[in-house]
Specification:
With 834 residues, this protein is mainly β. Among the domains are: 294 residues, Neuraminidase (6 Propeller), CATH 2.120.10; 279 residues, Neuraminidase. It contains five helices and 65 strands. A five-stranded mixed beta sheet has the order 41-42-43-44-48, with no helix packed on it. Strands 55, 56, 57, 58 and 59 form a five-stranded mixed beta sheet that branches. Helix 4 packs across helix 5. The protein is globular, with a radius of gyration of 32 Å.
């Protein structure tokens, strides 16, 4: 009986576990609403083509599906369909199967299928270093392909790998010269005998990718890899370069794409004599100047007799003879559908009556845990943690205040005061807002001041202009200390960031980026006896607890904590490090990390919300990140003009018609921040009391909206009182910008200041940080599930994002998860790359 009960219990537990297990993400059937749209085309864009070994069939891709047609042309038969993006079909040597690139398994990998589209099998199973451009070995046992590697930039390079058709992890044949290399390499294709693999690569000097290189010079060249010896030899190149190597079945000829005066041409080379000649003059432009992960030009192929070549150009599938004669079009017709996902389009009030702040900065809980100081709208505010309204800590003196931090006894706050003309000063103020004192003896570009435990010393960063502020007082950057009573500052390090104290008054911790890692080091008050205590390749911030026994860090936008012993052996820091127990404290991101209550509380912010956690619960497992916190949002009236203004006599371009809707000698009547009327003089009544401005001889156009704007909003979180970049936008007529890649802690506060009338700038909308797929510390957004995507979307939305920038997440399932998360949160996705 007990055995039976145990079995039933086990069955129930197993069933429950299965019920709770989330289903694997299916690229072909994402949980987002889709609808079918019809397509009926006889032309296509960037189509890869291949000819069957018997010369009777052509396979090609179009809009992510794969088709076949007779070699003479005709209606296309779809053999790979659906939401997965599938491309680059290649017939096997026996003509029975087709290798292709597909993301149906999550990301781009190499698959094979029967020629009728049945029996699809996944050959490679990469999740980050993805693959494309398959090429069969002549015996049909192996497939060569290009594997993509990224650096901390989204740009990367390729390697040529060899895989058995039955699977396996593959063998690297042509490898990148270094982990930091960013120059393109790809388009592998076997020689007819299988003794070599041809490929193209960027042969320009140096490891760093550059856009818009001069393709009239040699950017790309074609090389030959000898399978037996590993020797590499150059086959084609020179001025104009050479890409998409395509050897003829008889092994004598190599077809490739070459530039002539910036135009792409189809060339062939006699591999015996070395003669090269052009056989087709009007290809589409190749991608030599830009990024070409999937190939610099689409695949082409020879007819089995090696006498003609089939290729894509000008939207058509074409064929040309070896001698350049007989150029013809092979007609095709595709008449089917595609599934699409409609994005959310939410209404945004561009000129609300009030400003609701979403991005207070540097929130710092007082040592007794009762109050919090933070910056918002350029000023310091204090709020009781128990509730109530925030109030200004400092009086309005014409400066911006930033980087507040408490003394350990809670009696004073140190901060930076900034004025564009005078530059920065380190100041302290009493917890009651009284007794403001400047402690530095000259202006500078100061940041992140901190008190020593006994309150007698202040350490801080002194930097340089980043192009938005004055270049004065930037000749001597570094980490400095100064007496809290004021006086001359002493430099303790030329490099470093985020200086801070632990338990001792005589050692200063700081961050340094060395050896591609962020390191936490300490020095004495003279900058000597350096020790390295912790390091992490993806960490972006360290915070040592007041007692020096814990350390918090930020990685992938989340907050983590672990024990800290401060010894001579550096601690390897990371979300997946295992030297000491690591606890993720935040649920959906966090920044402005700090300790309070003598290290008994860990605190951080997400948008307008301050979160806290009991430090004693962090170690030992079982910790649940807090779901609620303290709101630091401030509501203030928006800056709005008042009264009536009439602009008279100008030419006005209303955009109301195909001719621009031009009105000569017009009147534009403005009421507050709205245009009430536009028309010819005499047609628009100007009310009594309206201010009239004669603008005769001028032309007025609607304000321009720059939907993909970039430009600095701050220098290391310092928002200047006047931003020349914003002023330049206005001078060119841009009254609204949308920046789809910025820094949240800079652009969203700047947007709030603009709406409140504190700075002059266009209306500002942004995505904040991109949801980035490359492993760049401080920008990398890891997405392995819908929950991950939701966390990033919710974090950005909380901070003030109006859109989500999906940037180079490598896999299709990751990109779909971002879209699904954005749909759930009703926020638009703007994608780029990937």
């Amino acid at each position: 009986m007990r055995t039976a009960l145990a079995a039933v219990t086990l069955l129930l537990l197993s069933t429950s576990a299965l019920a709770q297990e989330k289903p694997k993400w299916d690229v072909a059937a994402p949980p987002t609403p889709t609808r079918e749209i019809p397509i009926h085309v006889t032309e296509g864009t960037w189509m890869n083509v291949d000819v069957s070994p018997d010369g009777r069939t052509i396979a090609f891709d179009l809009l992510g599906d794969i088709y076949t047609i007779p070699v003479t042309g005709g209606p296309a038969t779809r053999i790979a369909a659906g939401i997965p993006f599938e491309m680059q079909p290649r017939f096997s040597p026996d003509g029975r199967r087709i290798a292709f690139t597909s993301d149906r398994g999550g990301g781009d990998n190499i698959w094979t299928m029967a020629v009728d589209g049945s029996d699809k099998r996944q050959v490679t199973k990469e999740t980050f270093t993805l693959l494309n451009n398959p090429s069969w070995s002549p015996d049909g046992r192996y497939i060569a392909a290009r594997k993509h590697f990224t650096t901390s930039r989204s740009l990367g390079t390729g390697e040529v790998w060899l895989y058995h058709v039955a699977g396996g992890n593959g063998v690297a044949l042509v490898e990148k010269p270094s982990p930091q290399h960013q120059k393109e390499l790809g388009e592998p294709t076997f020689s007819p005998k299988g003794d070599a693999i041809y490929f193209s690569r960027d042969v320009t000097p140096g490891p760093i990718f550059e856009y818009a290189q001069n393709a009239n010079q040699e950017v790309f060249a074609i090389e030959r890899y000898d399978v037996a010896t590993g020797e590499r030899t150059k086959v084609a190149g020179g001025p104009g370069g050479a890409v998409r190597p395509t050897p003829s079945p008889d092994g004598r000829w190599l077809a490739y794409v070459h530039r002539e005066r910036e135009k792409s041409k189809l060339y062939v080379k006699d591999l015996r004599s070395g003669e090269e000649r052009k056989i087709y003059d009007d290809l589409d432009q190749d991608l030599q100047e830009t990024w070409a992960v999937q190939g610099v030009y689409p695949n082409m192929d020879w007819m089995p007799d090696s006498r003609s070549i089939v290729f894509w150009a000008g939207g058509k599938i074409r064929r040309v003879n070896l001698d350049g004669s007989g150029a013809s079009v092979i007609p095709f017709e595709v008449n089917d559908t595609r599934a699409i996902v409609d994005p959310p389009f939410r209404t945004v009030d561009v000129a609300p009556d009030r400003v609701e702040t979403r991005m207070p900065r540097w929130a710092s809980v007082s040592p007794d845990g009762r109050r919090v100081v933070f910056e918002s709208l350029g000023h310091l505010w204090v709020k009781d943690m128990a509730g109530g309204a925030a109030h200004r800590l400092t009086a309005d003196d014409g400066d911006f205040q930033l980087f507040p931090s408490w003394s350990r006894d809670g009696k004073r706050v140190v901060f930076v005061s900034w004025n564009d003309k005078r530059l920065g000063e380190i100041r302290t103020v009493g917890a009651d807002g009284k007794g403001v004192k400047t402690v530095t003896d000259h202006p500078g570009h100061y940041a992140r001041p901190r008190f020593s435990p006994d309150g007698t010393i202040i350490v801080f960063e002194s930097g340089q202009s980043g192009g938005l502020t004055s270049e004065k007082w930037g000749e001597d950057p570094g980490i400095f200390r100064v007496s809290a009573a004021g006086g001359a500052a002493t430099r303790i390090a030329r490099d470093g960031a985020n200086p801070q104290f632990g338990a001792a008054n005589d050692r200063i911790f700081m961050e340094l980026r060395e050896d591609q890692k962020l390191k936490l080091v300490s020095v004495d008050l003279s900058g000597q006896t350096r020790r390295t205590h912790a390091q992490g390749d993806m960490a972006t911030e360290f915070e040592v607890s007041p007692a020096g026994d814990q350390i918090a860090f930020r990685e992938g936008y989340n907050v983590y904590a672990e024990p800290f012993f401060g010894g001579a052996k550096p601690l390897e820091i990371g979300s997946k490090a295992n030297q000491l127990p690591v606890t993720r404290a935040s649920a959906e991101g966090g920044q402005f990390i700090h300790w309070a209550n003598g290290g008994r509380t860990l605190a951080w912010s997400v948008g307008p919300t301050l979160y806290t956690a009991d430090a004693s619960t962090l170690a030992g497992g079982g910790f649940t990140p807090p779901k609620a916190g303290t709101s630091l949002a401030i509501s203030t009236p928006a800056d709005r003009p008042s009264g009536l203004v009439a602009l008279t006599g100008a030419r006005v371009v209303t955009m109301a018609g195909a001719d621009g809707g031009v009105i000569e000698d017009a009147v534009v009547l403005i009421d507050g921040n709205r245009i009430r009327a536009v028309g010819h003089r005499g047609e628009v009544t100007i009310p009594a009391g309206a201010k009239t401005v004669d603008v005769s001889g001028k032309t007025i156009i609607p304000g321009l909206i720059d939907a993909h704007a970039h430009g600095p909003q701050a220098e290391d979180d310092l928002i200047p009182q006047q931003n020349w970049s914003a002023m330049a936008h206005l001078a060119f007529g841009v009254t609204t910008i949308h920046d789809p890649s910025s820094t949240s802690s800079e652009i969203f506060p700047a947007a709030e200041m603009q709406r409140a009338g504190m700075i002059l700038a266009p209306r500002i909308f942004s995505s904040g940080e991109i949801v980035y797929g490359a492993r760049a510390p401080g920008r990398y957004a890891a997405i392995e599930s819908l929950d991950d995507a939701l966390a990033h979307v919710r974090r950005l939305k909380a901070e003030g994002a109006h859109s989500i920038k999906n940037y180079n997440q490598p896999r299709r399932d990751q990109r779909q998860q971002i879209i699904a998360a954005a749909l759930k949160e009703n926020i638009e996705v703007v994608a780029e790359g990937g």
